[in-house]
Amino acid sequence: MNITPLVWIITIAVTIAFFVYEFFAHVRKPHEPTIGESARWSAFYIGLALLFGVGIGTVSGWTYGGEYFAGYLTEKALSIDNLFVFLIVMTGFAVPRIYQQKVLMIGIVIALIMRGGFIALGATLIENFSWIFYLFGALLLFLAYRQAFAQGDHNPANGRFMRFVRRILPVSDEYNGDRLTVQRDGKRFFTPMFLVIIAIGFVDLIFAVDSIPAIYGLTEEAYIVFTANAFALMGLRQLYFLIGGLLQRLVYLAQGLAVILAFIGVKLVLHAMHVNELPFINGGEPMLWAPEIPIWFSLVFIGATIAVATVASLMKTRRDDRRDAIDDSSSTSVSLTTDTGLTTDTGLTTDTGLTADTQKEHS
Question: Per-residue pLDDT for 344 more than 50?
Fold first, then answer.
C-alpha cells in the first residue's frame, strides 16, 4: 500500500474527531445509556468499519482488504476480552453506573494511544529486523497458553500494582461525582475514580502487548494495523452497555482467543522461517519450504473460531441455567414439603391436613 503522509494526517484527524464528538455528545453529561442508544451506535460503528474495509479492498486490492477484515475481527475479539476486564475493574471499584461511560471513554483513548505507540515501534522493528517475526511468534504462543489457562477470577483492582499505587498515593474512601481529586482538611486526596483510570491504563498496556503482535501476524501494513485497531475500539463504550450481561455468558471467549493467538503465532513463525536471515538457523538461508498461510484462510479460521466460541459459550450457560433452575425447583419442593409438616412419623395425610390418627379419633 502506498499511504501518503496526507492520508495518515486525515485518518488520525478523523479518528480524533470521532472521539471528541463522543465525549461532548454522550460522555460529558453523566448518564447510563439506554439499550436503544447503545444498539444504534454500536451498529453505526460496526457498519462504518465494514464499509471502510470494502473501501480498502476496492481501492488497494482485496488482498489488503482481506488483511484488514482479518485484523479487524481479531482486534474486535481482543477488545471484547479487554471489555470484560474493564467490567471486572469497575465492579471491583464499585464505579456508579452513571460514571462508567467516562471511565470507558478514557480507557479507550488510552488504549488507542498505547496501541499507536506499539504500532509505530512494531513497524520500525519489522522494517529493520526480519527476525522479529520469531520473537512475535514466540510471544503470541506464550500469550495463547496464558490466555487458555489463566484464572478468570483475578481482579486487577486488587492486584499488586494497584496495592502499590494505594500505598504511595493519598486516596479518599468515597467517590466525589466524577472528579479525580478532592480537598479535605486542607489536604488533596485522589478519589477512587483516579485509581480506576490508572487500573484501566495498566490493563490497556497489557492488552497492547497482546494485540499488536497478533495483527502484525496478519498484515505488515502499519496503516491497516492502525485503522483496524481504531475501528475495533470505536463503539466499544456502547457495546459495553449493550452486551454487559452477555459478557458474563461468554465463558469460552478466553479459550477462543487462545486458539486465535496460537494460530497467528504459528503463522508468524512460518513467515519468519520463510524470510529467515539468522545465521545460526539454516545457515542464514530462507527456508522456502515453510508454507505461507494465505490471508483468506486466516480470515475464515478467525471468524469460525469466534463463532464456535460464542455458540459453545451460550449453549453451556443455557444448560447451566436450566440445571440451576431444576435444582432450585427441587430445593423449593423439599422446603414446601417440610413446611407442611409431612414427616415419616405422621404417615398418611388427607387434603384437609388431618392425620390418620386424628381421623381415627373422629370416627
Answer: no
Q: What is the pTM of this model?
A: 0.76
φ, ψ at 37 (rounded to 5°)? -60, -45
Please write the tens of the pLDDT for every residue from 299-342.
899 989 989 988 998 898 888 888 878 877 776 666 656 555 54
Average pLDDT on 82-101 reads 81
Q: How far apart are CA 148 and CA 288, in angstroms?
A: 32
Number of residues that make up the chain: 363
CA distance 62 to 79: 25
Nearest-angstrom CA–CA distance, 166 and 195: 8
Cβ 157 vs Cβ 93: under 8 Å? yes
Question: How far out from the chain centre does Cα 363 lie?
Answer: 73
Helices (H), 236-281: 236-242, 244-247, 253-274
The burial of 249, by beta-carbon neighbours within 10 Å (0-12 exposed, 13-18 middle, 19 or more buried), is given as middle
Enter the C-alpha cell of residue 165.
499505587
What is the distance between the alpha carbons of residues 260 and 191, in angstroms, rounded to a whole number?
Answer: 39
3-state helix, strand, coil in the chain (%, to 5): 75, 5, 25
**Buried/exposed 68-105: b ≥16 CB within 10 Å, e otherwise:** bbbbbbbbbbbbbbbbbbbbbbbebbebeeebbbbbbb
